[in-house]
Amino acid sequence: MAHFAKPVEGSWTEHYPELGTSTVNYEDSISPEFYELERKAIFGRTWLNVGRVEEVPRTGNYFTKELQCAGTSVIIVRDRDGEVRGFHNICRHRGNKLVWNDYPHEETRGTCRQFTCKYHGWRYDLDGALAFVQQESEFFDLDKSDFGLVPVQTEVWEGFVFVNLDPDNTMSVRDYLGVLGAGVEGYPFGEMTQVYKYRANVGSNWKLFIDAFAEFYHAPVLHARQAIGEESLKLQGYGYEALSYGIEGPHGMVSSWGGMSPPKDPSMVKPIERVLRSGLFGPWDRPDIDGLDNLPEGVNPARHPAWGIDSFVFFPNFMLLIWAPGWYLTYHYWPTSYNTHIFEGTLYFVPPKNATERLRQELAAVTFKEFALQDGNTLEATQSMIESRVVTQFPLNDQEILLRHLHQTARAYVADHSQTTIPVDLRARQ
Amino acid sequence: MTTSLPPDFADLEPYSQWCLATEADRYAKRLASTMEEMQAFYDAAFPRLEEVLRYLDRLELDALPEDAGRLLMLCYSLINVSFPVEVWRQARVPDSGAASMDAVIEPAV
């Protein structure tokens, strides 16, 4: 029985006829050759979220981001004009990685007036200009203005810093994020600066972990033991249905109910959740800030009173989760090979005013980790068996529509890139 | 000595080894502890939690005295062990196998 209304076509999936309803093949998640194509066709050409502006609040603040999926490393820095800029992390002299600490492959952050290469001491201003060459007179007709850092297209949307590694890209990040992105503009992300970030190496294709977080069909089963006794059985019997789904271009979203914050029946949650008034869905009491009463129209688009959380899948690898109790969460999936990736989950809260608020956030963060550990490990089990190719066609239900769309989008990008070198109007494709 | 908890919570002093500053340390101690050890800590600390909140909320979060700061860290550990004690009945997350997840950014206090 349907608990929430579906589109007139009878299902969310059929509302988007280009998706089809047939079984799905996961060759795109188990093929090393396909992954090599994805690196160029997807990660080398789309806008990638690499951080937040709060990470570089002042002039000279910088961080590096390893983008193994695109075969590079970038530096994000706030320059003297207050602009957030991005550069490939490579010295123009002989190609040494410019910014790193102790371990060349690890990300780093800090503050500086200029970037100085560890190798021969070449120095670059925050705008990328080559400022100093060691023993400059030994070089032959060296014009320093020809050897600035290689810029990367860098744009900020709602405080999220994005890079696009395609120098020929002509679409702004705002246009790229399209209708779904525009719908969340104005949410008070900038007020939520208390950060918990987790990172894990996961033994699965990057898309398979997005699959896990883009459907809640699994939640009553895989996480059954996180609810108490009878409540767990009740949740399984009820199953899962979203309030609504949205698909626009390469991106998708699912809007979901959230009966656990606060729970209707307190006996259904852990004792410490009852005392602290917090849990997986975050602290039960909303922070007292502007911007949470009149949510942007793309948040809880159905304006449903039982709304609990919206999950946006911004292609390719950035998920944004906005929770009814006034906090948000991001997921990033950074491929390192066809069957491994680095997962990052980052929780953002309004800074706590006292110890109770601090502990509520701690409980939400720790609960997130407990869930994510279960999810991540299950993915390794999925990857290994899909790779067996014993079964190659898998049925997806209506609550798994975003998975169907994600894999279809990845295949379309790869196909487009293989067929033509002309940039495709991504929004026009659908 | 400076490692003590506030006098009102001297009864929790036997569990002061749970006053750990980072999530990595707290999670590592959880994995290294027996269920009996975590149950004992939980049974002593959980009934005092509301009292602890009242005590700590009277203080400035950004300027906690050292003993209050340690009490707060003890609460972080109580949250961490609440999973084995209240639901998992084991130290590790069920079905998490060899998977691990590191806290790479967490609040300073």
Write up what this structure looks like.
The complex is a heterodimer of chains A (430) and B (109). Chain A is built from 10 helices and 17 strands. Chain A is α+β, with helices and mostly antiparallel strands and 430 residues long. Chain A folds into 2 domains: 261 residues, Naphthalene 1,2-dioxygenase Alpha Subunit, Chain A, domain 1; 127 residues, Rieske Iron-sulfur Protein (3-layer Sandwich), CATH 2.102.10.10. Chain B has 109 residues and is mostly helical. Helix content of chain B is 49%, strand content 4%. Chain B has 4 helices and 1 strand, in the order H-H-H-H-E. Chain B is globular and about 40 Å long. Chains A and B meet through strand 11, helix 7, strand 17 and helix 8 of A and helix 3, helix 4 and strand 1 of B.
In short:
The complex is a heterodimer of chains A (430) and B (109). In chain A, the strands form three sheets. Chain A has a seven-stranded antiparallel sheet, with no helix packed on it. A seven-stranded antiparallel sheet of chain A has the order 11-17-16-15-14-13-12, with helices on both faces.
